[in-house]
Amino acid sequence: MQNIKRELFRYADLICHLWNAYFSELFTGLDECEPLDTYDEIESKLFVALVCKPLGIQLVDDYFWGQRKAVKEIVVVPISDGEISIRFREPNTGLSQNWNKSEIIAAGGMSCSFMQFFQWDRFGYLNMPFVRCIVVDWPNHPEFVAREVLLNTEDVDFFRADSNEEEENPKE
């Protein structure tokens, strides 16, 4: 698998800078569609231009509508097999996102699919400290497979899954 951390972090850096330098001062409240609609449209186009096209990733048609879907071609794995901080989304919460308190868990063997960079206060100063993803494999904790999680951005690496490649540990 190809390490794509650079591509993902360039995108995250750009969307944060774009919001912080140009859009945050225009934001007056959730009762106004602008500048949020314009920013969301630009953010979506940047994800396609900076991440998807260069890496040959085709998103599902409704990726940007409603809840973000997992991008199976972008594999998120913890940098180390040691303990990391994880937040689990409560299952079956619909459009609301109820997250549990952070837990410290040994991450050995964990593999996830990328959904998006995440921050609690999306309308303040952005730095995207979390990655929202779905657990696809975790031999040590099979009960968490298919659960959405938030992982600290500094604790993970990003890889481009090869379409013909069998499941394997990208760190090997």
What does this structure look like?
The protein is globular. The protein has helices at residues 5-23, 36-55, and strands at 2-3, 71-78, 83-88, 103-106, 111-118, 130-137, 148-152, 156-160. Helices cover 23% and strands 27% of the residues. Residues 166-172 have low confidence and may be disordered. It starts with a strand and ends in a 12-residue tail after the last strand. The protein contains two helices and eight strands. With 172 residues, the chain is of the alpha+beta class.
Brief descriptors of the model:
single chain, 172 residues, alpha+beta, 8-stranded antiparallel sheet, 8 strands, globular, disordered C terminus
- Number of domain units: 1
Q: Which overall shape is indicated by the principal axes computed on the Cα atoms?
A: globular
Span of the ends, CA to CA = 10 Å
In the sheet with the most strands, the strands line up as 1-8-2-5-6-7-3-4
Instruction: State mean pLDDT (0 to 100 scale).
Output: 89
Helix/strand/pairing category: alpha+beta
Order of helices and strands: EHHEEEEEEE
- How many E strands? 8
From the alpha carbons, calculate the radius of gyration and give it in angstroms: 16 Å
How helical, in percent, are the residues?
10-25%
Please report which band the strand proportion falls in: under 5%, 5-15%, 15-25%, 25-35%, 35-45% or over 45%: 25-35%
